Every structure is written in structure tokens, then in C-alpha cells.
């Protein structure tokens, strides 16, 4: 069974590029374009992991992650923050919001795949 990843990204080019790269690696991809859609999609689709852009319309990634953590059925859902903000304080803010890990843009696919596998091993999906 493949791992289902929710990518939350409002930039079409970034979403398309990351989706295609992960699909090629065998992941199932669903997408949301803003923080509120991320919460709704996570509740409806039950992904195995969320890749959360932090700079989003409607509800930013920090608030969306906090809201996801507030739902008992999503409380254990792994969330990796994706952001162009690379300061240590940005990393800490993402972790404080409830993200499990942090990845700066541009995406280093090899590192991101290690992070994903560390949170959701391929044999644990489903």
C-alpha cells in the first residue's frame, strides 16, 4: 500500500514539481492550496503525512498545523514544514506549532525522502 502525502502549497509550480517527483518515488499525492483546505483535506482524506508550506493564504501553515493538532483523530499525523525561511527561529516556530520536522526550500529531494521515511516508513503505511 502506498503512502498518501498531503502537499499543502499555494504555488502551482512548486506543487506540480514536488508532486511529480514524489509520485515517481511511489507516493500517492493529494493537495491543498491553503491552510483551511489542508485541515479539511486531512480530515476527509486521512493522509499518512503532510508537507506543509508555512506561507499560505486563508490560514498560514503555523495556524493550520496547530488546528490539525487540535483534532484528536489527526493529533498524531506527521507534519513536515516546508519554507523558504531558513533561520533557526523559523525552525523553532514550526516545531512549536506542532510540526515534526522542518525542510527549507528549495527542496532537496534526497533529504526530504529521508525525513518522510523517518516519520512514515514505507512498510508502515496504510
UniProtKB/TrEMBL annotation:
The modification 4-aspartylphosphate is found at residue 53. It comes from the Bacteria. Keywords: Phosphoprotein, Two-component regulatory system. Gene3D superfamilies: 3.40.50.2300. SMART domains: REC. It holds the Pfam family Response_reg. Residues 4-120 form the Response regulatory domain. PANTHER family: HYBRID SIGNAL TRANSDUCTION HISTIDINE KINASE J. This is Response regulator. It comes from Sulfitobacter aestuarii.
Amino acid at each position: 500500500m502506498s503512502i498518501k502525502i498531503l502537499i499543502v502549497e499555494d504555488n502551482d509550480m512548486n506543487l506540480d514539481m514536488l508532486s511529480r517527483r514524489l509520485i515517481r518515488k511511489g507516493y500517492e499525492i493529494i493537495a491543498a492550496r491553503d491552510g483551511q483546505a489542508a485541515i479539511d483535506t486531512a480530515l476527509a482524506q486521512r493522509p499518512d503525512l503532510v508537507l506543509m508550506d508555512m506561507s499560505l493564504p486563508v490560514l498560514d501553515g503555523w495556524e493550520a498545523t496547530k488546528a490539525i493538532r487540535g483534532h484528536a483523530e489527526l493529533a498524531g499525523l506527521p507534519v513536515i514544514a516546508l519554507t523558504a525561511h531558513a533561520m533557526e527561529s523559523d525552525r523553532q516556530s514550526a516545531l512549536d506549532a506542532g510540526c515534526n520536522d522542518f525542510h527549507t526550500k528549495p527542496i532537496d529531494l534526497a533529504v526530504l525522502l529521508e525525513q518522510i521515511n523517518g516519520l512514515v516508513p514505507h512498510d508502515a503505511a496504510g
